[in-house]
Specification:
6 helices; alpha+beta; 2 domains
Amino acid sequence: MLNKKNISLFLLILFSIGELKAQERSKDTLFFSIDKYYTLSPTITANLSKQTYPERLEFEKEQMKQTKTNGYIFFVGDGYLVKGLKPKKILSIKDYIENRKFYFDGKYNKIIDKEKLKDSLTNKYTIFFVNGDEFIQPRFLEYSSYYPIRDGENIITNKIKDTLFFKLDNNYIFKPSSKSTSFLLKDSHDVTFGGFYFETVQALNNFSPKEILSLEKYVRSSKSYDDNRKEKLNDYKLWEHFNNYVVVLVEEAFGKKKYIEVASMYAIE
């Protein structure tokens, strides 16, 4: 026999499921056309996963020439092909995404911020891809960047990046020792569990940054940080984020400023 506590729990679960379904129904729907070079999917193209790495590189070179972008959309259909829908408008997902609304913040960046894409597209709308008279609803959709690209022994990264300047306060961000070339964050984890840190690239001169940011405020207001979690900082996500910027630390001493370019690193032992 159900007691009052169990009945209340059952009703709460039932209400939550109903609310989620209502939210799903209340989403607006967007219809996108299939683009051979911008929308890749094993649902559309057979044997996509069987491509060798050299074959994939050759296709990506063609993608980059055709799309003139830094990446593409990859999706997997939900297994059902819907027919009979009558969309008023079918959009180009390339044109929809490749605008500054979805880029990482900055003046020059043309790198898609996956978190912005989730907030303003994939979590906000019901999406269908139109393939002839068939409509495919993705169960998985993400933006994939071409970078970094492996070219033999070399790694090619996207060089069109904005620069972020952060104050080196030696409190939130600090060197583990005076001779170290690395900089650790107070919130980051030990490399035993996967830790984020910065590594010195080079000293720079003659900068006049418009704004020097607080790294602590920047990190703790980012999607990489969640104050409600036990492990508040997602080191890997922070590493991914800073890979899309040139990062410069600004150290001030005796009335003079030193500028140190650093690279974001993620290590696990």
